[in-house]
Design brief:
globular; 3 helices; disordered N terminus; 7-stranded antiparallel beta sheet; alpha+beta; Protein Transport Mog1p, Chain A; 225 residues; 28% helix
Length: 225
Amino acid sequence: MSRFTTQSTLVLLLAFTSIIASAEDLTNQAFGFRVKIPDTFHKIATAPSEPDTLYKSVDRVPNQSDPPTAIQIQRLRGTISPHQRLKLDEMPKIAGLSTTLEEITWSALRLDVTRQVMPLPDQTRYVAYGIQFPLSDEAVQLHVGGPIAKDEEVRVLFKEVVASFRNTKPLAGGASAPVGRLLTKEERISRLLSGIARMAITLVVLASIVIAILRSRRKKFAPKI
């Protein structure tokens, strides 16, 4: 937790210990999208250290050995071409992180999906599916992740959330030209990797907060000898 400021940790703690109002269907007029978030998920506040995260939610209280399933949406600070394909051999090789690519149909477009598996500090493995949507003013990316033991459930959830994702403005490459700067392929890949890293960091921080709270309570209520 040394990487986080006290303010960042406090934001997460306040969001977490309120446990947490059920998420509703999410609409973002500024970026031009709406998406259905299952009501079993609960929104958590984003820390000041992650200004690109637009939305984040988890399905339950995290614990050290069984991390929650999470949904995260981030801005990409640029537009993307819906016809630019990602290639597996262009993805950076990072120790402990395995990546595969597939395609999915969304709004009559074929978009790339990343499946990434990473270890958490407690040696559990976490799987996250990611996709980047070519919105007209600025692209956004969606990650849905969960414990590797629930890989198929996470995959189904990811597809359901993607299917519910709708643009409320014309897409990039449509009748209207993109407004923002077109991202290079390297920038797109970098943002995908930073997105999954941000998700992992959030899970570790939330689990650490839970552990600290439980230890404090045990100490407070421990029988005095």
